[in-house]
Amino acid sequence: MKLAPSPTVLLILALSLGGCQKPLQDAFGEQVRAYLLSHPEVLEETAQKLQEKKAEKASFEVKSGLKAQRAALEADSRDLVINPSGKITLVEFFDYRCGYCKLAAPEVMKIANENPNIRIVFKEFPIFGGVSNLAAQIALTPAGKAHGFNLYKGFMSEKALDNTAIERILRSEGLNPAEVFKAASEAGITKQLEDTHALAQALNIEGTPAFIIGDHLIPGADISALRAAIAEAQSGPLKRPT
After folding, report:
1. CATH architecture label of 70-234
2. Least confident of 8-17, 69-78, 128-137
3. What is the pTM of this model?
4. Degrees (nearest 5) of the Cα angle 75, 91, 158?
5. Hey, is 94 helix, strand or coil?
């Protein structure tokens, strides 16, 4: 009994036919077309396999990028770090005027307060300009870092962060706004923000918030994914870079 060629064989043969075989190509193309019209599930399976391949490639690229940038992500001495002795490192890229960052902030604060084994690295990543830049610069001043977690809470709690709100929050921390504003213009702070933007670009991070823990890059305020990544890290051997 003569067996009909499988859909995979049909597709491979169709793709392999050269230009010098046009009559055969036309006839065979019609055969492939007729088969696919009668079996649309083959196209669905092919599309699914293609998506799986793309996802595998994207995952590999993310893991490779995170590995290459691990020191810049986790061990930049210029960053604010909460729970510095923690064995597991969580990195957050954020903007104080990002609505989704504000949604995620209570979870970040909860993680910091309830999990001393989780070391949190704050990456100031202002993407909205203006007040976002100013708030990030202020947070990176010596005074800002000394009150870092409180400023994070204060800035994130403001629905519409502006200069007036920033001054009020600084005063509530016993800081002189004029002095802090002056310190925020230091060239070193500008350089740090530029470096963070370059790091985000290298990792294809285009928005905020973005969380990184181990080999996981979690874009957006996906709290469920963040909790799952933390649970996985807590049951595994993740450690700080040496």
Report:
1. 3-Layer(aba) Sandwich (3.40)
2. 8-17
3. 0.74
4. 125
5. strand
